[in-house]
Structure prediction request, 90 residues.
Amino acid sequence: MIIEGVGRLVLTVVEAKLTRSTEYWGKMDPQVEINYPDAKRTKTWRSKVSTDTHLTPVWNESVAVDVKRLAGYLVLKMWDSDYFGDEFIG
Prediction:
């Protein structure tokens, strides 16, 4: 069942407690990515990079998503932001 014209969804990314590091030296700079459906395509939102927090990043950021229909998935990914490219954490 698909429901049209539902409303607004507010997603808040607060913090994480990571169990492993992707860095050989130094600290990780984690960032959260949220992929969500919007009409005919998928949109992506990224948090700010949490610097100098390594395994316990804190963001306290929100994104408001206009929900036009209840269908599809929210996909959350975490990346380690690096100069030469981001590394997938999970």
